[in-house]
Design a protein that fits this description.
Strand order of the largest sheet: 15-18-19-14-13-21-22
Largest sheet: 7 strands, mixed
Structural class: alpha/beta
Shape: globular
């Protein structure tokens, strides 16, 4: 009999009246049952978070840091167990699931470090004008209030960590809503937080259905919303609460630009391997996976067969097998959508070089060329293991092609020229430019977010803490400075 997992209400375990099943996208087996909070329990969690907000903001830094350090250590101790859980509920290959746990370990460690040094206060002398003589300003940051964190399915542990850890570090209570498809990994964080001495009410993890989200979004006691997910849902949230502070980490169709100076056999082998790996890791279900390759005419003919060979070398299959590179998508419906987009592109004139086949929730790693610019797969985020390759002539054309998208999350540029690197940083309309590698690199302490329709605000522990807080000035008068 499958285990029924309780949720976390104001720091304690609780169960509701109903449950829902979490199944494996690989083989459909039941991974676990999850108890669903009732409306009254959701209200209790929100009320508790709102009531504790002043107490939690005043909690000493060492208390919050110790709790975060504890979670980081316990994630290390339970790495294999949690990785197996991620793989089971998400379909993520076990090697990528283990990497995700390692990243969450770092997120909580970074948050503990930031909790100790954040908000130390910045002094500013005001006697630069006569009216400010004897006055000193001290600026500190304080939480805006309770955070509503809404996490997606594709990194079910680490993106929950990116909501919870900065909130705790900043002293902001948080209500976390994990994705309904993958709630178990987020609930594990509750297991570890419950072992700490954080105030009751300072955190809750509520696996409510998506149709309950609007009520939480509208609740005036939750003035900060941190959402990671689709462009459509993210902007609908922001439009519905224009006076709230929203951080939106939305979609992308990441471009990998390979320029003409990146021309040796070793260069092209490296680029092809990295492109193939990171167009297909997580089943392509990453907003910074490689979706578009933009190759200079000087290297295109030598690079393209390398990419196809590297994509075909990706090992697909059972996500529990350590040799597997590419597992299923999160659901059969998701794979069917990807299949329909590829079929649309081929009917419109695109050339299918490899892949293009679906088996249930799995979709074969796919490479397309000659894709018309007005096809869905050119314009939208595919969120699947599909790659398009385009030939351009010169740096300016390459950067223009990369910018020819409503999205602007990250871009990768393969070049050895440091001057080109700085020009790329200036020219590319994205939140991050990665030189010598794919756009899929993310260090969890760096500012992470996009331009254009890829969202607003930044994740990354310190930068999320800035988003969750505001500056408050204290003016001291009558000082002998």
């Amino acid at each position: 009999m499958a285990v029924t997992h309780a949720f976390w209400l104001a720091g304690r375990q609780a169960t509701g009246e109903d449950t829902f099943d979490v199944t494996s996208p690989w083989d459909g087996r039941l991974v676990g049952k999850v108890s669903v909070p009732t409306d009254a329990q959701v209200e209790e969690a929100v009320a508790a978070a709102y009531a504790v907000r002043d107490e939690f903001a005043a909690t000493p830094a060492h208390v919050r840091a110790a709790a975060l350090d504890h979670v980081s250590r316990r994630l290390v101790e339970r790495t294999e167990e949690i990785a197996q859980l991620i793989s089971a509920e998400n379909g993520k290959p076990i090697k990528w699931a283990r990497g995700e746990v390692g990243r969450a370990v770092s997120v909580f460690r970074f948050a503990a470090e930031e909790a100790r040094r954040f908000n130390g206060g910045e002094a500013q002398r005001l006697d630069t004008d006569a009216g400010g003589q004897g006055r000193l300003a001290l600026t500190r940051r304080f939480p805006k209030g309770v955070v509503l964190g809404i996490a997606p399915f594709n990194f079910p542990l680490n993106l929950c960590a990116h909501k919870i850890a900065p909130a705790i570090a900043a002293g902001a209570p948080i209500i976390l809503k994990p994705a309904p498809a993958t709630p178990l990994s987020g609930l594990i964080i509750g297991d570890l937080l419950a072992e700490t001495e954080l105030p009751a009410g300072s955190w809750s993890i509520l696996p409510v259905a998506n149709d309950h989200m609007p009520a939480l979004v509208q609740d005036e006691r939750l003035p900060v919303i941190s959402f990671t997910g689709s462009e459509k849902v993210g902007y609908a949230i922001m439009d519905s609460v224009p006076r709230k502070h929203c951080t939106l980490e939305l979609g992308g169709n990441g471009a990998a630009v390979v320029l003409g100076d990146y021309a040796s056999d070793a260069d092209l082998d490296w680029a092809a391997t990295r492109i193939a790996t990171f167009s297909n890791y997580q089943g392509g279900q990453s907003c910074i996976s490689v979706q578009r390759v933009i190759a200079d005419v000087a290297v295109y003919d030598r690079l393209l067969p390398r990419i196809v060979a590297a994509v075909e070398a990706q090992v697909t299959g059972d996500p529990s097998d350590a040799k597997t590179d590419v597992g299923p998508l999160v659901s059969e419906a998701a794979a069917q959508r990807v299949e329909s987009w590829v079929q649309e592109a081929v009917k419109a004139g695109a050339t299918l070089l490899t892949g293009g086949k679906r088996d249930g929730a799995s979709y074969a790693p796919t490479v397309l060329t000659d894709v018309p610019a007005d096809t869905t797969i050119s314009c939208e985020e595919v969120f699947g293991p599909v790659l398009t390759v385009t030939k351009v002539d010169g740096e300016a054309a390459a950067f223009a092609a990369a910018n020819d998208s409503k999205y602007g999350l990250q871009a990768g540029v393969f070049t050895h020229d440091v001057q080109v690197a700085f020009r790329a940083h200036r020219a590319l309309e994205v939140g991050g430019v990665v030189i010598g590698d794919v756009p899929s690199y993310r260090a969890d302490q760096m500012p992470y977010g996009g331009a254009k329709q890829s969202g607003v605000g930044r994740e990354g522990v310190k930068f999320a803490m800035d988003d969750y807080t505001y500056e408050r000035v204290l003016v001291l008068t009558g000082l002998a400075l």
